[in-house]
Write a structure and sequence with these properties.
This protein folds into 2 domains: about 100 residues, Methyltransferase, Methionine Synthase (B12-binding Domains), Chain A, domain 1, CATH 1.10.1240.10; about 130 residues, Cobalamin-binding domain (Rossmann fold), CATH 3.40.50. The protein is about 60% helix and about 10% strand. The protein has 10 helices and 5 strands. The chain has a 5-stranded parallel sheet, sandwiched between helices. It is globular and about 60 Å long.
Length: about 230
């Protein structure tokens, strides 16, 4: 019998429970995360504090280890799935309390491309960092992106492509935003295996993100800049 089985989450003090939840998240244990979230809520923790301290805190470690090659996609997807279990409990409560959020992101794979593992990973990690994510799926024509942006209150547009043949379509989307005079309203992040920084610059994106961890860091940086600019203005 391992130590893991001996741990009764409800008997742990808050700080130890949070650390245990970080471990459980890292190990992709969805039921334990759901239980931990409910215990903290039962102890009168604010939903936003549960999100940031227990879940985002844990996903930050996952993100770093993914970036450093200690964890790989399957493990990160498991961790993200466990995070989703916790988020499902917190989402209605966060909405009811009007908790602050990092920002809103529309994300989708471009026209002609049906790859979505990378995109899904970015979406989950962004949710884990406190962003609201609107995932519009795969094979998106420029109209799909515009429709999603028109829904309002969007800060970041994320586009992904895994084929060299679909990469140029990202420029079509960005050029359309420029034509419509709304390019500067959004931070545009692009990613996908065949892309690189030069390509991102060439098509007019704000940044190229080589993986999900970098996407989260980049999104946070741009949101901080935006908030600072608004405060200064």
């Amino acid at each position: 019998m391992s130590d893991e089985e001996d741990i009764i989450l409800s008997e742990l003090p808050d700080d130890e429970l949070v650390l245990q939840m970080h471990d459980d998240l890292y190990d992709g244990l969805k039921e334990e995360i759901e239980e931990g979230v409910n215990i903290l809520l039962g102890r009168d923790w604010a939903p936003y504090d549960v999100l940031t301290t227990a879940l985002v805190g844990g996903m930050t470690v996952v993100g770093k280890d993914f970036r450093d090659g200690i964890l790989f996609v399957p493990e990160v997807l498991l961790a993200a799935n466990a995070m989703k279990g916790g988020m499902a409990i917190l989402k209605p409560l966060l909405a009811a309390t009007g908790a602050p959020r990092m920002g809103t992101m529309v994300i989708g794979t471009v026209k002609g491309d049906i790859h979505d593992i990378g995109k899904n990973l970015v979406g989950m990690m962004m949710e884990g960092a406190g962003f609201e994510v609107r995932d519009i799926g795969i094979n998106n024509a420029v109209e799909s992106y515009l429709e999603a942006l028109d829904a309002g209150d969007v800060d970041i547009l994320g586009m992904s492509a895994l084929l060299t043949t679909t990469m140029p379509y990202m420029k079509v989307v960005i050029d359309t935003l420029v034509e419509k005079g709304i390019r500067d309203d959004y931070t545009v992040l692009v990613g996908g295996a065949p892309l690189n920084e030069e390509f991102g610059k060439a098509i007019g994106a704000d940044a190229y993100c080589r993986d999900a961890a970098v996407a989260v860091e980049t999104a946070k940086e741009f949101m901080a800049r935006k908030h600072n600019a608004l405060a200064a203005g």
